[in-house]
Task: structure prediction
Amino acid sequence: MKMKKFAGLVLATAMTASLFAGCGNSNNGSETGKSASDSSAGVEPTGDGPAWKIGAIGPLTGAGANYGNAVCDAAELAIKEINAAGGINGYQIAYKKEDDELDNEKSVNAYNALKDWGMQILVGPTTSDCTIAVSELTKADNVFQITPSGSAVECTKYDNVYRVCFADPAQGAKSAEYIGTHNLAKKVGIIYDSSTTYSSGIEQSFVEEAKNQGVEVVAAEAFTADTKTDFTAQLQKMKDSGAELVFLPIYYTEAATILTQASSMGLSVKWFGCDGLDGMLDMDNFDASLAEGVMLLTPFAADATDDLTTKFVSSYKEAYKVTPNQFAADSYDAVYALKAALEKADLKPDASVADITAALKTNMTEIELAGLTGNIKWTADGEPDKNPKAVVIKNGTYVSME
Result:
């Protein structure tokens, strides 16, 4: 992605990061991606005639499955709603998902499977590295791609790729800005994953903006994919440095381990993260009480009382038996943005893939979506312009920070 325009601070500020899958029914609370209800291969259109073919890619199993399955369910929910309301320009949507297991090569294979199926538009992949890998193929094939959560700057380097979340530099800068302007801490430590584009990108922009906020980074400790089970050394550095708050620009699986080990060590600090932490509360075998008071930047809070959010949360809970997170909201907005742009273009699904891509590139910049994650406009380079917010975990739920 490229970081371009992003809206700043409202009551809180935030950004979004990594995901999308297309989907049947899955359990957002499971690391393995097992279904909470009957699984399906996607959505089949009703009636005769041509149908739009939207594909999606994300981690539906393994690490990151909470992300992929949240997106998967929300995309399915949006598509079923649209089909029930008459489709897009009077035509139904066919929807198919593929699991990439958080692996670049498998994500490429997933894309090729969807291409063979006849996919016209891609939603995904969920994570940054997979999004970047697949964008090489969508660019070559001239397929329009919208990732709900791929946040690395490079994700939108091609003009056929858009995103719903904010780029990593925006997440890091706005996190530092929020901590500084709300006087949450003067001494901050960072634990980040140097082996992922997502985490290292956020860490770098956080450090740069912290200087402007009068926030001192007293310790910055990295880990990698090969060393993400024992954080004793990093946590001891946080303790020794006198950090009042520890910033975690990482994914929920590692964050849960860090919180568990920090509790065992008696480390008592404030914790602040980005959208990657979303999903931690639903993990199997994690004591959610350890996340009490954790703050994170996110564009969506399920406890919001506006009509759109309450309707979405109610429908999602009824269908999937869990509370939707921000990744679900991102993917729901992605599908409705496609609908708005295709309707503005007045296209039919028998148009060529090249014509669909050209129309979407033009009309995505002309729409304004009143979405779950804010009122969103898009720039010509695929970047969203919206106002996100921050939440704090209280009693096992996300609560908006005023």
About this structure: The first strand starts at residue 42 and ends at 43. Residues 65-84 form the longest helix (20 residues). DSSP finds ten helices and 16 strands in the chain.
